[in-house]
Structures are given as structure tokens and as C-alpha cells.
Amino acid sequence: MVFQIAGKVSLITGGASGLGLHFAKSLLSKGVKGVTLADINERDGKNVAEELNKQFGKNKAIFVKTDVTDYSNYEDAFKTTVDNFGNIDILMNNAGLAADGAFKKSVDVNVLGSINGMVLGIDHYLNKYKSGNEAVIAVSSSVCGLEGYPQWPVYSATKFAGIGMAVSWGNKLHYERTKVRVFALCPGPTHTNFFAGNDKFFGPEYEKAFELIEEELKNTQTPEHVSTEVIKLLENSKTGSIWVIEAGKPAYEFTLRTRNDVLK
Questions:
Q1: Which of 135, 171, 219, 252 is most buried, judged by most C-beta within 10 A?
Q2: What is the pLDDT of residues 141-165, one digit of tens each?
Q3: Residue 25 in contact with residue 258, Cβ under 8 Å?
Q4: pTM for the complete prediction?
Q5: Cα(136)–Cα(146) distance, rounded to whole angstroms?
Q6: Which residue windows are coiled coil (predicted)?
Q7: Are 91 and 117 in contact, with CB atoms under 8 Å apart?
Q8: If 0-12 CB within 10 Å is exposed, 13-18 middle and 19+ buried, where does residue 88 land?
């Protein structure tokens, strides 16, 4: 059965810019009841929420300043969403940081932050406050979480963690008790400012590694394409699945090999 997005409520971390903002626009275009933009950037978040309300209607979008690495602060975003819209059906567990030069912060945001979202979503909010029979969590990983990239070893490792979260919390045992479907989203290179900043590499050796494989990363796509494909995945993907969106092509499912697969 197709998950009906119209009338649902979504919480989007990292929602003030980049893919998070495009997810918000796509969801609003599909008729969601409301979106919460949860982001550490207060100025941009407030401005974006105001713009979305002008475009899609009054009180369609709210902003909550959120530090996803702080469990109680992240929970405030869930509480505010329920208080404003009455329920919560979709979590875009999207906040991320690509800054291997500040690796502790990257691990905190990409791993601890995502885990906080999964615990809050699966066991405390989406399972209780969904408006229909099912809720959905999209875990933002990356193609870096499927292969690993030499220029970003920390970022790649954190995105491997995202795959683990989606596969583990997306297991049918958790779905049967919560009716919260989970899938991993792995975009390829996309036109955003996500990798901007002076601390994205450990040092010159890592930047050189980037230069050696830069050619294969040039086949980028638009964030609009990614968000359009994500809507389809929210509607139809099975729990525990992993999806790649790259080079402007339709999303395709990536299947992990199990130990038994190797031993056959």
C-alpha cells in the first residue's frame, strides 16, 4: 500500500538549507499538513520558514532551533511539532556535517545526532503520534557510506553508520511493534554547499586524494532531483532498504550481502 503524504506532518533536521530545504519544499508541494525545520542555524531557519509560509500557506512551516547532538534539545523539536500540528508522521533524519578536519564534531552530528533521532522517532514519537497506520523515517547516508572515499574517511565512516541504523531499526521486528518504516537515502554528488568550508579535509594529503578522484565526482545532480526521488521512496520503499540517487537518474535499491551470501 502506498504511503499517502498528503495531510501528514514532517520533521526535517538540517531543514534550513541544502537537501533538507528541498525535502521541505517537495513535501509541501505534495500537500503535507505541515513541516518543522529543525536546524542549528537560527537566522536562516526563521527566514526559510517565513518564505515557505508565503509560498505554501500560513502556518505550514515552523522553525525550531535544534542541536541534534543534544538529546533533550532534539526532543524539543519533536514536542514542538506535535504541539503545533497534532501529530508527526515523517522524520527526515537529515542533519549532517562534512568536516573531517573537525572530526569530533562530524561524528557527534552524523552519528550521535542520527541515533538521537532514531531513538526519539522509533520509540517515543512516530510510534505514538502518527496520524495513520504507518510512519516513515528516512536516514540520510551517502554513496560514501557504501564504498568509502579516501579524502573523507571520517565522513565516510559516519555514513556507514547511517546504513547500520537504517538496516537495524528497519528490521521487521521493530516495524511490527512500531509500524515505523525506515530506509536509508544515499545521494551521489549533488549541487549544494554541503562540502563548503576550510575544515572538510584532514590536511593536504587528503585534499590530494580528492584531486585524484575528482573526475568521478563531477557527474553531479540537482537537489530538486534528489527530493523528487525521495518522495517516491517515502511512498513506496520497504523497511530496512537502502536507496542510491545519483547522476540525475532514478533511485535504485542497493542490497547488502550477508555472511550467508558470502558462504554460499
A1: 135
A2: 999 999 988 888 999 999 999 999 9
A3: no
A4: 0.94
A5: 22
A6: none
A7: yes
A8: buried
